[in-house]
Amino acid sequence: MAIGFSSIIPRLQMLSTSDHASVVSMNLFVALLCACIVIGHLLEENRWVNESITALVIGVCTGVVILLASGGRSSHLLVFSEDLFFIYLLPPIIFNAGFQVKKKQFFVNFTTITLFGAVGTLISCGIISLGVTQFFKKLDIGSLDIGDYLAIGAIFAATDSVCTLQVLNQDETPLLYSLVFGEGVVNDATSVVLFNAIQSFDLNHIDPRIGLHFIGNFFYLFLTSTMLGVMTGLLSAYIIKKLYFGRHSTDREVALMMLMAYLSYMMAELFYLSGILTVFFCGIVMSHYTWHNVTECSRITTKHAFATLSFVAEIFIFVYVGMDALDIEKWRFVSGSPGTSVAVSSILLGLIMAGRAAFVFPLSFLINLVKKSPKEKINFRQQVVIWWAGLMRGAVSIALAYNQFTRSGHTQLRGNAIMITSTITVVLFSTVVFGLLTKPLIRFLLPHPRHTASKVQSDSSTPKSVTVPFLGEGQDSELDLPEITRPSSIRALLATPTHTVHQYWRKFDDAFMRPVFGGRGFVPFVPGSPTERSFNQGQ
Hints:
Blueprint: H1 2-42, H2 51-69, H3 82-100, H4 103-108, H5 110-136, H6 146-157, H7 162-167, H8 174-200, H9 208-243, H10 245-248, H11 250-270, H12 275-293, H13 296-324, H14 328-334, H15 338-370, H16 380-389, H17 395-405, H18 414-445, H19 490-495, H20 497-517, H21 530-537
Helix pairs in contact: 1-2, 1-13, 2-13, 2-18, 3-11, 3-12, 3-13, 5-6, 5-8, 5-15, 6-8, 6-17, 8-9, 8-12, 9-11, 9-12, 11-12, 11-13, 14-18, 15-16, 15-18, 16-18, 17-18
């Protein structure tokens, strides 16, 4: 008995040591997140630096310190996990994007956004895939098959427009902000769907039917993912409208909104759909219906809670990417041929820029031919900003590269290690170098006055004017669109399709959707609330 007990003690001590190391790592990581927030706030008005670059630089510096302290063995506080990224960090970012989007601007420009985000991503993926197939065969980087080349195209077609969105003002340049923002979300979804479709096919035995099956599978994922997000959002609106959670507990309705949003993402993953598209459209539907069904306290709480979760997740990702850039395991494989690694990274950067230009300027030209109003056309300076916004690569590219070229974050193949290190190099270079140039470039191309920023907060008594202007008073205003007469012909319909569709949708929404699912105009009647007092005073 004594022998058995004495053998257990060392195991408990080992477990205790392991747990303590994890606690130390988490403490350091949380401290880094706090430092990023503080430094980012202090540099908010800096001409060159933004929070993304700050977090990335802090991550790299921390990685250097850990690498030196560990004697060159490791630069990590945490081991990279695809599950951590796709299941825990990405959902709040994408949901908040949908929840805070100005829906009218998004859907009025939906055709343009879809062309840039979906068709443009396919063009960019094709150009990058063809380019790496031609160039990489001339370099000694190991054995890559056609599936790897197509996957590389999908990996580097995924953009990260965070730096540009932090500089653009959606009140000063609503069209440009809507296009850059919308394209970024659709691009991420398209890249992930494309990547998953490439992995699901046996590309070593290609026949004509595979192409048709691939296209059919792509559109199936797009449509079903969107519908799942819409249905989940409508279900949350209906439940809260019928059960009046806020009458008894604001906590319950806030918790239900959060859980239903996360449920939409996990259901998409469960059914092998695109969780990004699902949770994005769930966010749009919840902001249109569910958000208006809850009490005033819940509106303020949910708005800031979703924004805070998204903000922390973004900082977390950039800090980790910075630390992962110094992963000694992967750099060891390329240390003998640094020229090859530099050449691969340079080729990828060149193809990214070429692939981006190959669809932004031609598609903008075609869009301008259709648009009648000069305000709706995309001028050349705006086209340059859209092109520039899509040059940066971020966490989605890192996560997809790890999925394709590693197993549980580790690799023992030289070719795979070169692709991982090249991906990290491209992400670092594009985020830091292109990111540093973003503010001065946009201020040079779009010299807008700053006085319009004061219009954001018009009435502090309403939850819609709290700090973040995304859900501002004019978001879905039913008075700011000019009255449009019913088109007398197909030609007239095509002349102003977005406005006409928006008008018909508004009538359908008021007549059928809002009476069932709630939305603007529906205020929960809570005993003892300001709503009840104002109601009694009106009697």
